[in-house]
Write a structure and sequence with these properties.
219 residues, eleven-stranded antiparallel beta sheet, two-stranded antiparallel ribbon, 13 strands, 24% helix, disordered N terminus
């Protein structure tokens, strides 16, 4: 078996990867299985489903990155779900991070997929992290300049947490494979409707601005 194969990360074309790049991807792009319990998944779904169900599935995203999806942003959560989101932030971000106050909820239809893209630095900072609810999937990272050469697949089981940071955030596109392509290390990963709850940090420029706005401590 591949020397780079771990249970949830699979590096393609491994001879093309430098040890340093493998190390960086392993450190910055992580999957934590069973991050939420079945009860926590149910509570999160209970809070987001009602509002999502009123929205139609969209054919394509404004930047054409997503096919068959619906999405919304949410700022206020129940105490139970807020505790889960606090755990997500604690596991994924450095201690003094400035967080976006709105959490992104993305509902991907069973026949939908997310095309390769790099999230704009205008809207979020150094880390993208999210919980996969309802369905497992395969997230594929491709090096922006060496698309066919440097590819790594992340198996995101249902109720897992994924985290993208470092070169995985800025130098690699990420995508969620559609049902037909949904394979990990040659094995079929069944893809159904998937809801992801995504936390992000503030873009660097905004974080700097807000840091300057902090009140000066009184002597």
């Amino acid at each position: 078996s591949s020397r780079f194969l771990s249970s949830l990360l699979r590096f393609h074309n491994e001879q093309a990867w430098s040890p340093e790049m493998v190390k960086q991807i392993r450190e910055e792009c992580r999957v934590t299985p069973s991050f939420v319990s079945e009860a926590e998944e149910k509570a999160l779904l209970g809070e987001v489903e009602t509002r999502l169900q009123k929205l139609p599935y969209e054919e394509s995203h404004w930047d054409e990155a997503i096919h068959l999806y619906r999405e919304r942003e949410q700022r206020v959560w129940t105490a139970e779900n807020e505790a889960v989101l606090a755990r997500v932030r604690e596991c994924s971000f450095p201690k003094d991070t400035s967080h976006l106050t709105y959490v992104h909820i993305l509902d991907l239809h069973a026949d939908g997929h997310i095309k390769p893209h790099i999230d704009s630095t205008r809207y979020c900072g150094d880390v993208i992290t999210g919980i996969s609810l309802l369905s497992s999937c395969v997230m594929r990272l491709r090096h922006e300049k060496r698309k066919e050469e440097l590819i790594v697949d992340l198996h995101l089981p249902r109720r897992s947490l994924y985290r993208l940071g470092g070169i995985g955030r800025y130098e690699f596109t990420h995508e969620v494979l559609g049902e037909m392509e949904s394979k990990f290390d040659g094995e079929k990963i069944e893809r159904g409707r998937r809801i992801s709850i995504i936390c992000r940090d503030l873009p660097k420029q905004q974080a700097k601005f807000f840091a300057k706005m902090q009140p000066i401590p009184q002597e």
